[in-house]
Structures are given as C-alpha cells and as structure tokens.
Amino acid sequence: ATLDPGQDEAVAKVQLQAQELKAEHGGSTYAQYAALVLAKLAVEQGNLDQAEAELRWVLSQKPQAEIERVVTARLARVLGEQQRYDDAVALLSVPAEDAFFVYFQEIKGDILRAAGQAEAAREAYQAALDQAGAEGQGAPLLRIKLADLATASQ
C-alpha cells in the first residue's frame, strides 16, 4: 500500500527533521525520540534493517532505564520479524522483579510462537500470567494467547 503524494512528502519531512535532530543534538533525549520515530517509519515501510539500526543507535546513547526497556522490546520485535528468533529472545531476559518482566515475557512468547516453539511460548506466556497475577494485574490477553496456543497444538 503506497501513500498518496501528500503523505509521502509529510513522511519525508518528518524523516529529515528527525535526522537533523539526531545530527545536531545526538546526546539528547529528543534525538532518541527522533530515532524512535525513524524506527517506526522504517517498520511501516518494511525496512526492518533501518529500524534495527535506529533502535540500536538509541541503545548506544545509554538512554534512561525506562526508554532502554521500551527500545529493547521494540528491537526484539524487529528481530523477531527478521526471523532472528534467538537474538530477539536473548534481549528479553530480565528478572521477575523487573517492572517490564510481564511485558517482556509476553513478547518472548509471541516470538517463540512465531518460531514454531509452542511449548517454550506457552512457558513464557504462563510466566507472564503468573507474575501479572502476583502483581494483582488482570491479563485477559495473555489468557487468550495461552488458550489459543493450546487450541492450535491440539
């Protein structure tokens, strides 16, 4: 699906401004956000290599912990889309006490399922569901994913 010329122009303008922000203020949080925008646009355009490069650039800037976790999750998803499953899963290892544990385990389950590793995916989803329950969170989407995985393996 191609964009109309007006959208193409708008996207090009955003890309240029984001590149300028990175070049002129490379160490700033704003530049990191600009790179995240560039990564999102690259994914939308099907350019996963460029998305990976932008996300790795953000990580190289030593962002704040919360930004680092979000970028890591996005990078894992990009690597999963590139079918680099082992690399993607390796990024998602955090202790259960980590605030992103549930989110990372869910992504890990998604990637493992895409890799055809149903049992490992089930274990990741279950770990996420168990931790979510321990934290008093409802997790209906995780329950649906687990049920769907069980149905698919029958």
Describe this structure in words.
The chain has 154 residues and is mainly α. Helices cover 75% and strands 0% of the residues. The protein has eight helices and no strands. It has helices spanning 5-24, 29-44, 48-60, 65-81, 85-90, 101-114, 118-134, 140-152. Helix 2 (29-44) runs antiparallel to helix 3. The termini are far apart. 28% of the residues are buried. The mean pLDDT is 89.
Short description:
This protein is mainly alpha-helical and 154 residues long. The chain contains 8 helices and no strands. The mean pLDDT is 89.
Helix content: over 70%
- The pLDDT mean sits at 89
Tell me the span between the first and last alpha carbons.
36 Å
**Could you name the ranges where pLDDT drops below 50 across 5 or more consecutive residues?**
none
- Class by SSE composition: mainly alpha
Strand content: under 5%
* Assembly context of the chains: single chain
- Counted by DSSP, the helix tally is 8
Main sheet makeup: none
Order of helices and strands: HHHHHHHH
* Outline type: globular
Strand runs, count: 0
Radius of gyration: 18 Å
